[in-house]
Amino acid sequence: MIKQFIIERCSWIFLFLFLQLLLVFVAYLDPAIPLTPILYIIFLSCLIIIIFGIVRYQKETKFYKSLNDWEPNLDLSTIIHAESPFEQIVKETLTDQTQKLKNEAAIHFVNLEQEKDDLLSWIHEVKTPLTAMQLIIDRLEDEVVKTQLTHEWVRIHLLLDQQLHQKRMPFIENDLHIEKIDVKSIIFREIKSLQSWCMQKGIGFDVDLEKRAILSDSKWLAFIIRQLLTNAIKYSESTDILIKTYLQNDHIHLEIRDFGRGIAPKDMPRIFDKGFTSTLQHRDNAATGMGLYLAKKAAHSLLIQIRVTSELQEGTTITLIFPKANKFQHILSM
């Protein structure tokens, strides 16, 4: 322990010796300084330093010697660097809080998953009476009542479908099946499902499909087209909706153009934001602000770009730009 004590103070010892030698050297060079008194002072200084070192050694090592007597195998470095009681309390508190938050997060995650599963189950259950309602509506003879009920049935069906796809959206990558599909069959199927609503509003369709075969997922592409057609019908009156496909820069484009009220320039940057509705008719209770948001998210997973142009009171054009076939290699390989 003496050796360790000296090693720890080695720099101070060398400094003291250096100063004493420097003093002797200066007295030797300068005849005006007597050498004998200087040597006497150095002797006293060394004696004092030695006595001081012995006293400090006894005081500083007494505690550690008692530890060695109490437990010979005790690691002194562990005692020296041991945590204080306050540090131990803080560490234990943080550990408990972290574990508590982890447990709460796990419980919330399980509850959310259960809530999502319950909602999906409920939506599927509601589809059964909706199908029965459709059969009953089809048997009605009063055309006015039949048209009104069909329109309301379509609205309920679209809202349920939107909610169903919204809950599936976080897991869309697990649900994709990329294949070559005929976009004409998807478009005509979606138009037919919205037929009663279109007839009530006097809306027709002008379809020109130059390119029909595309690579995509049929179910999610149908959902995207459904949202775009629903928006076009909702904000149009007694007009035609133009639908066409064409090839540009080696990319297939699907364009849906309506001649409705259009989108205000100040709203354009926000049309794909979740829950955003137009500021032109902000009291429109039929708008949920979810259609374009969900369509954008689904399109992103399918590598489809959405481009929107609009003029106020003139109409809106939404273009889906499909990727080249080689862009799907990483999806097809999953």
UniProtKB/TrEMBL annotation:
Biological processes, Gene Ontology terms: cellular response to phosphate starvation
Gene3D superfamilies in alphabetical order: Histidine kinase-like ATPase, C-terminal domain (3.30.565.10)
Annotated transmembrane regions: 12-29, 35-55
PROSITE patterns registered for this protein in UniProt: HIS_KIN
GO terms for cellular component: plasma membrane
Chain ranges of the Histidine kinase domain: 121-326
Entry keyword Transmembrane: yes
Lineage: Bacteria, Bacillati, Bacillota, Bacilli, Bacillales
Record protein name field: histidine kinase
Organism: Lederbergia galactosidilytica
